[in-house]
Give the backbone structure.
Amino acid sequence: MNLPAVISSLIFIVSLALIFSEKINRAIVAITGGVIMVGIGKILHFYSEEVALEAVDFNTLGLLLGMMILVAMLEPTGFFEYLAVIAARTSKGKPVRLFVLLGSITTLLSMFLDNVTTVVLIAPVTILISEILGVSAIPYLVAEAILSNTGGVATLVGDPPNVLIGSAAGLSFNDFLIHSLPIVVFTWAGALVLLLYLFKKELSKRPRNVKAVMKLNPAETLNQPGTARRILVVLGAAIVLFFAHDLLGISPSFVALESAAFALLWIRPSFPDVLKRIEWSVLIFFAALFVMVGGLESAGVFASVVGLLERAVHIPPVLFGVSLIWIVALLSAVVDNVPITIALIPVIQGLGENGMDIAPLWWALAFGAGFGGNGTIIGSTANIIVTTLSEKTRTPITATLWNKRGLPVMLLTCIIASIMYVILYSTF
Amino acid sequence: MEISKYMKRNVISIPETSTIREAAAVFVKHHIGLLPVVDKNKKLIGVVGLRDMLALELPDFLNFIADVDYVHDFGAVETTRPPAKTLDKPIKTLMSPAISVPEDTGLLRVYALMLQHQLHDMAIVSKDDELVGVASRVDIGAAILSTWSKVA
């Protein structure tokens, strides 16, 4: 390896270590790392501002921004609370039924909307419902986080790694429905059944007050029914366009941004309020990571890694894919899956340029990044959110609890995904 | 108009060694909204508001759900009491640092401070920090309004 490769790797590794240590906000680390990468790159002549700009995947950023704007408008309408209250009433206070309903709603929402927002909005109502019932909120919260992580793997827009992979590999929305959704259906069902088993003691406890739940009034959760209706219409249209984006020759990010623009124009909300609800730190984090990874690419780091991999790894492609699922899953369980995905994308692309069939590897990456996050309390943002919320209640979720209930689910989902990966390998 | 003229002088207070359970009994017995905590020299060291006590009974979700319009029945929460472990904790774990004013403070300043700190009652202390009285918003408001009758 030459000097630029060594220096740029060092910048990237130090930044990753700082991000994973969670001592400093990850967006601050990334933006600093990106600036240092460009600065050193200019001095050592391996990177420039122009190349850095090209390294930023605006397709990913546009898709994330568009969806964030739509969710930012849907959030204050009370729609999420509405669904949770409907679930509570439909369950008639029966714990298992409530568990399945809340889990399914969270999954469906997070297949199309940001997992984090979904969980942020559903989890508080979940705590409310379980307190009214007089039961522990823990099983419901853990299930919501895990099932939304799992469901998100099914679609192109379901979770950030998929957005990244879809954009880099040129995979369409339908590609995800064809290749990822069937596997997710099985892993999701497996996860649900295992969760029901792991929480069977908690869920068999009779609720103390069912009548009160039936008095929850869903209509009163909707602050702005008209706005909610309009956004749902736009979201529905966006999903239809997602199905057809490949056919129409438009990118998913165009669909998301055009839907956002249309919704903004139709509803004309207070724009500063919308902007406040957008996760700018996520967008900045992504953009800065792209700049950093672009530096590694320009310095030839990925070419060396790919060369090394090809010389060292002589295993059948199917096995290579399965190993990728597990390696990425184990990494995603302990650290943020976004930097892992962003860093692995150029490696896979490099393997493709050298003649390997990489189409199956994209799916392996998506499954590993998605299911791995279930394993630990810090595995995904959704896990962190339900944990933080539960810490404000009388029954907090502990790391030990998650290791007992979440880790088995992660292992099971990865096993199911691996088996189906092998079975469906020829179709990828 | 100094607060000392309008405050209640027979102040109910509890020693710093009391438990939350004992404090609750004092709140019930005397029907009060603010309970000053004093050391053995009657020096004010903190206050416990009715709201601090009730926070132990209120459900956690009120901390992160702003809108509870759609909840018509709090169900099991209505019959959930704080655990015995909590009630037997020293009152010092629940009290907040005392916000107090000296007895020669003007009424409007006392009222302004109460608004600023969202207090319904204010502890009044002597020059050497000894608790000498308590004034409620009602005491202060009535004292101020009483002067209006003289406005020609």
